Known about the structure:
Elements: E1 9-13, H1 18-28, E2 32-37, H2 57-60, E3 66-71, H3 76-87, E4 91-94, H4 98-104, H5 108-114, E5 119-124, H6 139-145, H7 150-156, H8 166-193, H9 198-206, E6 210-215, H10 216-225, H11 243-246, E7 253-254, E8 259-262, H12 267-276, H13 291-296, H14 298-308, H15 314-323, E9 328-330, H16 334-337, H17 341-345, H18 387-393, H19 398-407, E10 410-411
Parallel strand pairs: 1-2, 1-4, 2-3, 4-5, 5-6
Antiparallel strand pairs: 3-10, 7-8, 8-9
Amino acid sequence: MxxxxxxxRVIDITSVLFGPLATxxxxxxxxxxxxxxxxxxxxxxxxxxQAAPGLGPIFANVNRNKRxxxxxxxxxxxxxVLQALVRDADVLVHxxxxxxxxxxxxxxxxxxxxxxxxIYCAALxxxxxxxxxxxxxxxxxxxxxxxxxGVHMVRDGEPTYAPSVTADKVGALxxxxxxxxxxxxxxxRASADGPxxxxxxxxxxxxxxxxxxxxxxxxxxxxxxxxxxxxxxxKPDGGTGYHRTMTRNRRPYRTADGWLGVLAYTHAQWxxxxxxxxxxxxxxxxxxxxxxxxxxxxxxxxxxxxxxxPQKTTQAWLSLLxxxxxxxxxxxxxDDLLRDPHLDAVGFFQPNFDGETPVTRTLRQPVLxxxxxxxRDRPPPLLGGHSRDVLxxxxxxxxxxxxxxxxxxxxxxx
Length: 414
């Protein structure tokens, strides 16, 4: 944990991965993230294998640096608890449908009436200003709708999903930066207004909240289409699809005993690699020196890589291509990554938890802040593991907390 967001309190009413990964990033940066869960907990808690009840691997890897409050928001008392938390929070993030969060009484207007300084982030499937608003959205649905699966169809004749919850993770990154931008805007506006006297100054400093909407469909479409908008950037019938990435020969290449990723891109790189592939003749072709013509022949050039690499072993090619400064890497499987020497050297999978947990391997926050002193991470919480602490901090007396737990409005394992 790097305490860049220390003092920021986040109410996290999200589940699965789209929202939880985003709020974990905020927690990794030092925010106090309170994960609000219903009586059954986040739906990915029971995904196997479980090291402890309700602690599956997907949950563990997107919910560190959080505290769990288990509260039944279908009860009046449960909603009263959340109201108390919202009044003192900096950020609220949810990934519920608009009608569901409104029904609970925590839509943007209601929540910001409780706390005008609140940064309210709605993580949605589709933007609220379009005809798809309110439709259910899961990773597979968004991969299909956004063009992420369809680019494979254009190239290969058949669409396919990335074997990863790519849409959720892309959306999560948008949530994280959007919330931080809104926080910065709020603080800068308060600072720019400067010190003042009386009710007007107090009103300025108490307000400043922002409604933020992150629709996964739009976020992933932007991710998928940045390079593929191509000629349609300039005219309606300009065509889409970046030809270099759409060529069938742009792929991992088989060697004599494995697979490699190789990328020659510039004129200088192709000039160095073609002789090694036994194709020095291409250097004399009139089109080779022209970047536009060379780019148009990407499939042909990549085909030369595909034809040559089976002639040597993976290790032989790694040595040879690195010697001439050609970007190259072995094709790693997830198991290979657990033994990768670079990741091992930087401690990428090493946990740094403050407290006992069955988690023995996790994913380090990849961004480094060498000049900021870090702190140990909170382990992923058990369901309701911090209910009493959170309620106590929110101003509830011990007897009142006991009553809430006895009624079933709140559950606690602490």
